[in-house]
Specification:
alpha+beta; Immunoglobulin-like; 2 domains; five-stranded antiparallel beta sheet; four-stranded antiparallel beta sheet; 12 strands; bacterial flagellum biogenesis; FLgD_Tudor
Length: about 220
């Protein structure tokens, strides 16, 4: 915003006013310098019978001061954001080599009947959580009654045996979680192999489970 040019203002000061009003991308410092240059020119050439309006000058100075404050705030926030991103990346690297639980319903069984952990996330406490494990053909091989569980994420292990106590075959199994009193979500196990940063977003490399952001991690094992 520029101060109006008075009738007896010289051509040179009028040119300054034109330049100030025509530019729409100056920083607060540029606007302040142009404003003060124009103000001095107007004070030198003002009509004694029609002096400048002090209220208008004060308003314009306040607006320039506000713009400068906003620019400084944006710079500060940008710096803080960069520091937080760096800190988050450093913290995420400590997860490399660890296991995490994410949304999924897969359990892997090895040749020695060892299994990957499985998990359950409950929206609220429940008294009747049941896990049903199925083979690749959809046949139920194991039903696990977890009973009462508190709200939140929980990790469990399966001994790799079916309902009869016999060891199941090596391979990939799926499972479902049910509860009559709350929403239950199945969680699968994954190992963290690395950390990457894409467009300022920290992601964990989980191998065959792909890349996920930190908010997708339900539990660290």
């Amino acid at each position: 915003m520029s101060v109006a040019v008075t009738l007896n203002e010289t051509a040179s000061s009028a040119s300054v006013a034109s330049t100030t009003s025509s530019s729409g991308s100056e920083s607060s410092a540029d606007l302040q310098n142009n404003f003060l240059t124009l103000l001095v020119a107007q004070l030198r050439n003002q009509d004694p019978t029609n002096p400048l309006d002090n209220a208008e000058l004060t308003t314009q100075l306040a607006q320039i001061s506000t713009l400068s404050g906003i620019e400084n705030l944006n710079t500060t926030l940008g710096s803080i954001s960069g520091q937080l991103t760096t800190s988050q990346n450093l913290q995420a690297t400590t997860l490399v080599g660890h296991g995490v639980m994410i949304d999924g319903n897969t359990i892997l069984v090895g040749s020695d009947s060892s299994t990957t952990p499985f998990g359950v996330e409950l929206d609220a406490a429940a008294s009747d959580v049941v896990v049903t494990i199925q083979d690749a053909s959809g046949n139920t091989v194991k039903t696990v009654n977890l009973g009462s569980q508190t709200a939140g994420a929980h990790a469990y292990s399966w001994d790799g045996t079916d309902d009869s106590g016999a060891a199941v075959a090596e391979g990939s199994y799926t499972f479902t979680v049910s509860s009559s009193s709350t929403t239950a979500t199945a969680l699968k196990y994954a190992e963290v192999y690395g950390v990457s940063n894409n467009d300022g977003i920290t992601q964990l490399n989980l191998g065959l489970s792909g890349n996920v952001t930190l908010d997708k991690i339900k539990q660290i094992i």
